[in-house]
Fold:
Amino acid sequence: MALKETFYISHGSPTLSIDDSLSAWHFLRSFKENTFSRKPSSILVISGHWETSHPTVNAVSGLNDTIYDFYNFPKQMYQLKYPAPGAPELAKRVKEVLMASGFKKVNEDKSRGLDHGAWVPLMLMYPEADIPVCQLSIQLDQDATYHYNLGRALAPLKEEGVLIVGSGSTTHNLRSLRRTDDDGSVASWALEFDTWLKQALLDGRYEDVNHYEEKAPHAKIAHPWPDHFYPLHVAMGAAGENAKAELIHHSWSLHTLSYASYSFTAKP
Structure:
């Protein structure tokens, strides 16, 4: 079953996994019914929480471990499990298509499980944990165009029924979060960046998004580090050059955290 869509999901805070007061929680819980009803053969997640010097895939042959890569959160979060099967064959294919596209060094990690950028959204989207999952790392010493081209190299996997999901946050400045007294307001810089991104994507101005640091307002404030933004570029690239972007969810929390999420659909 060939797929046309790729997705960028804003996973926000790890507490999304347990906070059903967030509209993003309800969006992800209804993902199968309202957004993407087909069951993929496997899932490839590009998470903002796995950074390596070269592209690396986790090639787990059994069940994926659940990595708790966060600190001082509610105790119940450390009891959550997402034992999705590993996808070693998909890991092999990812390595093949990347190397065929000129990525000279692609590594495998046969023991690493799923970080919360992967398992938090997936446990809401696919709670049965019955779809094999593979993760692919990002490279912070590279730029957005590099990650867009990384996505372009992954595009053939869609023909094999692989669901490609970038997981990050549309805005991600942890120092700016209003953890107490969240009155629902949104910082002006966050709103301006979020609005610019939405318009650029819906207009198909992908080159502007690849050069967001020069083109977007408040880019360095919205993303002091690009780790949570590069997964969007991968998902965007994997959909194809003329893909159509659609805003599939939009909400805010903690004053500056956008949960805006997008689909990218290849044109016929």
User: Anything to note?
Assistant: The first strand starts at residue 5 and ends at 10. The chain is about 30% helix and 20% strand. The domain at 5-265 is CATH 3.40.830.10 (Protocatechuate 4,5-dioxygenase; Chain B).
